[in-house]
Design a protein that fits this description.
The complex is a heterotrimer of chains A (429), B (319) and C (601).
Chain A lengths: L3 H4 L1 H8 L22 E2 L6 E2 L24 H6 L8 E2 L6 H15 L13 H9 L5 H14 L1 H4 L42 H10 L14 H28 E2 L2 E2 L7 H20 L20 H15 L3 H7 L4 H4 L9 E3 L5 E2 L15 H10 L22 H14 L2 H7 L5
Helix pairs in contact in A: 4-9, 6-9, 8-9, 9-10, 11-15, 14-15
Chain B lengths: L1 H21 L16 H33 L14 H5 L4 H5 L1 H31 L4 H5 L6 E8 L2 E6 L2 H8 L1 H4 L2 H8 L10 E5 L1 E5 L4 E7 L4 E5 L4 E5 L5 E5 L15 E2 L4 E2 L5 E4 L12 E7 L2 H15 L4
Parallel strand pairs in B: 1-5, 4-12
Antiparallel strand pairs in B: 1-2, 2-3, 5-8, 6-7, 9-10, 11-12
Helix pairs in contact in B: 1-2, 2-5, 7-10
Chain C lengths: L16 H6 L4 H31 L21 H37 L7 H9 L1 H11 L38 H30 L12 H32 L24 H18 L2 H15 L6 H15 L14 H29 L8 H24 L1 H7 L3 H31 L1 E2 L2 H28 L18 H31 L1 E2 L64
Classes of the chains: A mainly alpha (429), B alpha+beta (319), C mainly alpha (601).
């Protein structure tokens, strides 16, 4: 009898060598749901002195505004931010409305386990969505699985940037739901705000965002990264549809549709516009046209570079009232106070905060290649309130701004390296 | 009943021993292939200790199991009737020691002490070679400049700074020209970040087979640990300190021209055994497990410099 | 010299329930209180270990029950939760299970009984030492619910991960990790309480053993259990103040803005910390200066008790009594000069590493001597296989594995390869689970009759033993292989690297064995509590043992002995002698002729 309990171990041992439940995908039962966090309608103001502290996420829920450590606390006490139409509280919407929105979104965008991009009636656009944006169901399924493994804990199930870890890193992870991204190579000065090119998202995955909690994912195979980019675009499109509905079609607690309108049709319209914008961004014609680099950096005495840097410094730091009229701000140094050492945080479009970079640290979030910095100066970082300077900087007699942007780029790059600053004669103390 | 218990002990210990015997032959269950200049010596020490401890493991467990088998009490609690012991016959030469409790106590104190001291002192020279900073010059040689990089660890990735391609080339060619300005330039690499350094490349350390490597290891936030299992290298990165790490890779794993790793230079095919991870080995937060980079060892100097040139071009892209 | 005054002269007024069983100064009650709280924390620590194992075996799957706890993480355990699980597993097991079991429960219970005293030297201090554990219990359980989660920087709590704080005045959250804020502060305070409790206990034990032995109980007639408790108490007294200081320093770093351990220039995204000039390595030195002797605190009492149990059930005198005492003292003494072996790869000067290596390798020697002596005790024995004996024998057998694996880590170059891998985890668990904890089980099965006057079920004890023995080896032995292959510690998902991915199958085997091992401990817990009420009633000396506690009634009465015992012999007179019916002689037995043991004494 006493030996029998040893025999019982054998099936255990045998079974255990089988791989049990190797399930990497989301559970079939999980749904994206409808957002419950406040929807930012406008920016509250300009500047804020500190970062929010670990454990806080300024706009996780309306209740947050009652927490006195929340950056919005004081403003909310003074003037109710919901009544003042700075934020919309989506939880106020009656259940029936939320159900409706949810049904339509689930129909067009699927579930986390089976994501899809639907709701496009136009065949041409559908074809382009599949080819150019790579949004076919198979690649989305792979992307969803990998997203769950690598991205979810910061960026959240719906791409809301409110995963479990999000409150504990600063800057906070990106919220994809407004279709806005910071580091783009798509020209933002021509037709207004444009979504990024796929290459921009691939680049972010490849090199990470230095100085933030976003690491480089270059160790993942490139097909996995492509799938992740597709999935992020999917989450972004879904988020954008939801955001548009809340921004435009919600009045207090009800869904207000015009006569004859159905929610499905409304969302289809939004989807058409959003997908078209994304497809348009993939067109090479809409990429930022980088002027050829005009200087020879290999000169033995670096004369050209030095002159360029000096011009760049002037562009960066000297007051320019004519810019203030157009963009509300003077020059670079207005926001990058003291070359970034004393920058204030600025309210961004997601309701969180962004700090103009401390350029003396030599850390460039959007990428450190000269062309990356060129992109930033050219088209700005619109959601974080960095303006596009392509149409503002002085042009040469030919009407082109060939050198001015590169001068600023050179100056910024030199700022980040103490040794080079000395060589170029730039003193910032 | 005693026999059952002794057999339980015996079977379990045999299973443990069996696992160690089988593991080296199961793919992925043993030490990864050692591909650095000192992995052979470290592996030898490991096997030596394994042999010694394995011997004493078998000896002491066999004695224990044997005693339990032989000396288990009888059903009514009287001492067991003992058959003449075969083992005792084998041990006749040392019965004098075995039967004198003081002598045996001395024996089993002095013999292990000697073995342990031997083990201890045999470790010192390879430890010094790998870690003592005073030994670094001997290791590299006066007339060689290693491939020098700076690795900055942060939550949760590795960032590597390389000198520019021309600078690296001058370092690698130092042996021929022995130009003292080049030596000085190399010595300034750790403290001085030059404008044309190839900076902050994420997650990938590229080095050259057969040429020494010097890593200046630092961290931006918490303690991390540079862990190159295939190189038998492990060094914690301490905030507030830059710690040098050096080794010589003896095998390459990167395909020429494409610079894809996982390439077996012997079979010319790709396999997982030639993916050499840089896996953080000190708890650094919730992302510790994913703080994994990759080590690329290039086969030839030309290939290595070609890669560096490509990386430098990309880092300086102006369109 | 030993003095004890008789209590027969004055009677105590009858105490109420609270004074008798809750706020008692009777060392036996206090020992049993430690025992009960430790059993509860054993279950807590065990549950945490199972969570860790489940995550390791199936890193991406949604685990049925856990899935509902983590809806915003795709049904998976968040990584910071996993970090908290293993950190709290270790903290609970070390500070709230093993140390309280060994020093709190058995130290308290056995010392006065085995040396023939009526109670400890300082009964009120003794009571305080138990009740100081309660703030620790409350704090450590509260830490699970702290904002940001419970402490997750390992039980080793290395700065800067654990102790980075925002500039003074901005709150106690940490930019380095969510769990390093409030959770870490709870942990520090809880451990401060545990340290104070242990220091009180150690002072008591040393004084009692030196001053209060019964007449005839010379130092060299004390059982090994007492020698071990004595030397352990000295270890605690010298090592704990250093831990206490380190904990206070980290607490100050986190709360009022000192920077003992925080250097300058730390960057956490947009967050900055105070200007610093501290040294993270300083924490490591201070912490390990205590924590290395701590591991000997966690093994020596078990070794002592196992010595007594083996000689009792082998019916043989303990082989090499003086050598055993010297070995215990040697382990303790050497234990103070080896702390740097935890820091070989830490950035400490490697020349120090060489020095620590030699001392560490030598510490294997007294341990080896002890193992040989235990084997010698079994030689030509008349071995009774009771549950207690089985666990004690398993202690010996598996401590051999734990001790031998330690030699690999002591060798610094080999440590380069196995530091922070599962090889270390295997070693730790062989010496703590299959050695210390099995020793504790042996002691519980052995002394339960003396504590409660009833016997635990021998049959279920043997079932508990057999399954635990096999399952424990199935869990911890393969970890050596994992470590050799390079699997790192403290990793929730081993598919992140190429060299760890092939080990998933072995990890799953370990997890299933761990689930079996965990479940089978319930048999022990049920046996324990069932036997409290319905166990077979027993007499004074159910095991025919020699030491003093078996001369009094079971359970021992308040005041321990009817009359002060007088000791005439050492505790190890076991063995059949011509013409004698008994094969053992109690320490108080004046007339029995010397047994076989006398020749060795």
């Amino acid at each position: 009898m006493k030996r029998t309990y040893l025999l019982a171990l054998i099936p255990f041992t045998a079974l255990s060598f089988c791989v049990v439940g190797c399930d990497e995908a989301y559970s079939e039962a999980l749904r994206y749901g409808v957002r419950t966090d406040p929807v930012p309608l406008t920016k509250l103001g300009d500047e804020y002195p500190f970062p929010d502290q670990p454990g806080q996420m300024p706009i996780l829920s309306i209740d947050n505004f009652q927490d006195e450590r929340n950056p919005y606390f004081a403003a909310h006490q003074k003037n109710d931010l919901i009544k003042g139409k700075v934020f919309l509280d989506p939880t106020k919407l009656a259940d029936a409305g939320r159900q409706q929105i949810r049904q339509v979104l689930d129909k067009f965008f699927g579930t986390p386990a089976k994501p899809t991009v639907g709701g496009i009636d136009d065949d041409d656009l559908k074809k382009q969505a599949l080819e150019v944006l790579k949004l076919d169901d198979k690649i989305l399924a792979l992307g969803s699985q990998e997203y769950r493994k690598h991205c979810l804990h910061c960026h959240g199930v719906t791409g809301d940037g409110r995963g479990p870890t999000a409150r504990w890193v600063n800057p906070h992870p990106r919220d994809y739901r407004q279709g806005r991204f910071k580091f783009e190579s798509v020209d933002q000065t021509q037709t207004g705000q444009m979504p990024p090119h796929r290459d921009d998202l691939m680049r972010t995955l490849e090199v990470g965002v230095e100085g933030t909690a976003m690491p480089s994912f270059v160790v993942l195979p490139s097909d996995v990264r492509e799938a992740l980019v597709s999935y992020v675009i999917h989450l972004s499109l879904r988020g954008m549809a939801e955001f548009n509905v809340f921004k435009n079609k919600i009045d207090e607690n009800t869904l207000k549709l015009d006569s004859g309108e159905t929610l499905e049709q409304v969302v289809k319209d939004y989807q058409f516009n959003n997908v078209s914008a994304w497809v348009k961004s993939q067109d090479p014609a809409n990429r930022i046209k980088v002027a050829p680099y005009p200087y020879d950096d290999n000169e033995p005495d670096l004369k050209q570079l030095k002159a360029s840097v000096a011009r760049g410094k002037e562009l960066f730091s000297s007051p320019r009232p004519e810019w203030a009229a157009k963009i509300g701000k003077d020059v670079c140094i207005t926001c990058h106070k003291d070359y970034g050492r004393q920058s204030y945080f600025r309210y961004d479009e997601w309701g969180t905060f962004a700090k103009p970079n401390n350029l003396l640290m030599g850390v460039y979030r959007g990428g450190r290649r000269p062309v990356d910095i060129y992109y930033r100066v050219h088209s700005g970082i619109p959601p974080s309130t960095m303006n596009a300077f392509a149409n503002l900087v002085p042009t040469d007699p030919g009407g082109k701004n060939t050198n001015a942007l590169w001068d600023i780029v050179n100056f910024v790059r030199v700022l980040g390296n103490p040794n080079m600053r000395q060589k170029m004669g730039i003193y910032v103390d | 009943m005693g026999k059952f218990w002794s057999l339980l002990f015996g079977a379990t210990m045999a299973g443990c021993f069996g696992l160690f015997a089988v593991a080296p032959f199961v793919d992925g269950w043993w030490m990864p292939e050692g591909v650095s200049s000192h992995s052979d010596r470290i592996d030898f020490l490991f096997y030596a200790i394994l042999g010694i401890t394995g011997f004493f493991f078998v000896l002491t467990e066999a004695i224990l199991v044997g005693f339990l088998y032989r000396y288990g009490t009888t059903a009514d609690g009287t001492p067991p009737k003992l058959a003449p012991s075969k083992v005792a016959n084998l041990l006749k030469p040392i019965t004098k020691v075995l039967n004198d409790p003081h002598k045996i106590e001395l024996a089993w104190t002095i013999i292990p002490a000697a073995i342990l001291l031997l083990i201890a002192f045999s470790q010192v020279s390879i430890w010094a070679e790998v870690k003592y900073q005073s030994r670094y010059t001997d290791f590299v040689g006066k007339d060689t400049i290693p491939v020098v990089v700076e690795i900055s660890a942060r939550q949760f990735e590795w960032r590597v700074r390389y000198p520019s391609k021309s600078r690296m080339e001058s370092f690698l060619n130092y042996t021929e020209k022995k130009d003292p300005t080049v030596k000085k330039d190399f010595e300034s690499f750790a403290k001085l970040t030059k404008f044309d350094d190839v900076k902050n490349l994420p997650q990938a350390l590229h080095v050259l087979k057969g040429h020494s490597v010097l890593i200046h290891l630092g961290t931006q936030d918490v303690i991390h640990s540079l862990n190159l299992p295939h190189m038998r290298i492990k060094q914690d990165a301490l905030p507030g300190k830059i710690i040098p790490v050096w080794f010589i890779p003896t095998k390459s794993n990167t395909q020429k021209g494409t610079w894809i790793d996982g390439f077996n230079p012997d079979t010319k095919k790709f396999d997982d055994h030639h993916i050499w991870d840089i896996a953080c080995a000190e708890l650094c937060g919730w992302g510790h497990y994913r703080m994994v980079g990759r080590l690329f060892v290039h086969e030839t100097k030309e290939d290595f410099l070609a890669w560096l040139e490509h990386a430098e071009k990309d880092a300086n892209a102006k369109n | 010299m030993s003095v004890s005054h008789s209590h027969e002269a004055h009677a105590h007024p009858e105490l109420g329930f609270l004074r008798k069983y809750v706020f008692s100064t009777d060392h036996k009650i206090i020992g049993i209180q430690f025992l009960f709280s430790s059993v509860i924390f054993l279950l807590v620590g065990g549950a945490l270990a199972l969570l860790v194992r489940i995550q390791l075996a199936w890193p991406h799957a949604e685990i049925p029950i856990l899935r509902d706890w983590f809806p915003d993480n795709g049904g998976r355990m968040p990584e910071s939760f996993y970090n908290m699980a293993f950190s709290m597993h270790a903290s609970a097991m070390i500070f709230f299970v093993i140390i309280p079991f060994l020093t709190g429960a058995f130290g308290n219970f056995l010392i006065p009984l085995m040396i023939g005293a009526r109670d400890m030297a300082f009964p009120a201090l003794n009571m305080m030492s138990y009740w100081f554990m309660w703030p620790a219990f409350v704090l450590i359980m509260a830490s699970f619910f702290a904002e940001g989660g419970g402490p997750a920087s390992g039980w080793t709590a290395y700065p800067t991960l654990s102790s980075t704080a925002l500039p003074t005045g901005q709150g106690y959250q940490s930019p380095a990790a969510p769990n390093s804020g409030h959770g870490q502060i709870y942990w520090l305070c809880a451990l401060l309480c545990v340290g104070v409790s242990s220091m009180m206990g150690s002072v008591n034990y040393i004084t009692t053993i030196i001053n209060m032995r019964a007449p005839g109980m010379t130092l060299y007639r004390m059982p090994m259990s007492i020698w071990a408790m004595f030397i352990t108490a000295i270890l605690q007294a010298f090592a704990l103040p250093v831990l206490t200081v380190a904990l206070i320093m980290q607490l100050l770093d986190k709360t009022i803005g000192t920077n003992f351990f925080l250097p300058d220039g730390l960057i956490f995204g947009n967050w900055s910390t105070n200007v610093g000039s501290g040294q993270p390595l300083l924490w490591q030195h201070l912490f390990w200066f205590y924590s290395h002797p701590a591991v000997y605190i966690m093994i020596l009492p078990a070794m002592g008790m196992v010595s007594d149990i083996i000689s009792t059930f082998a019916r043989r005198p303990l082989f090499g009594y003086r050598a055993m005492i010297l070995s215990v003292a040697g382990i303790a003494g050497l234990g103070f000069i080896v702390w740097g072996h935890h820091m070989f790869q830490s950035g400490m000067d490697p020349r120090l590493g060489t020095a620590f290596m030699v001392a560490t390798v030598m510490i294997a020697l007294p341990s080896a001597v002890k193992v040989f002596n235990w084997l010698g005790t079994c030689y030509k024995g008349n071995i009774r296989f009771t549950s207690a004996m089985l666990f004690a024998l398993a202690f010996v057998s598996l401590f051999i594995i734990g001790g031998l694996s330690g030699i690999f880590m002591a060798a610094t170059p080999v440590d380069i390869a196995i530091h922070d891998t599962y090889f270390i985890v295997a070693h730790i668990h062989y010496v703590l689970f299959t050695s210390s904890l099995f020793g504790i089980f042996a002691a519980i099965y052995y002394w339960f009759p003396k504590m409660f006057g009833r016997m635990m079920s021998e049959f279920w004890g043997k079932v508990h033993f057999a399954i635990s023995f096999v399952a424990a080896n199935c869990v911890f032995f393969p970890m050596h292989i994992l470590g050799v292959a390079g699997q790192r510690r403290r990793i929730p998902d081993i598919t992140a690297t190429a060299f760890e991915r092939p080990l998933l199958g072995l990890n799953q085997f370990i997890t299933i064995s761990a689930l079996v091992l965990g479940t089978v401990q319930l048999i022990f817990v049920i046996n324990f509590f069932f036997s409290l009420f319905w166990g077979k009633v027993c007499g004074r000396n159910p095991w025919d043992s020699n030491t003093l506690e078996w001369t009094t009634t079971s359970p021992a009465p308040h005041g321990n002995f009817e009359t002060t015992p007088v000791v005439y012999r050492w505790p190890y007179d076991y063995g059949q002698v011509e013409g004698q019916a008994e094969d053992n002689a109690l320490q108080t037995d004046k007339t029995a002729p010397p047994g076989i043991g006398e020749q060795h004494h």
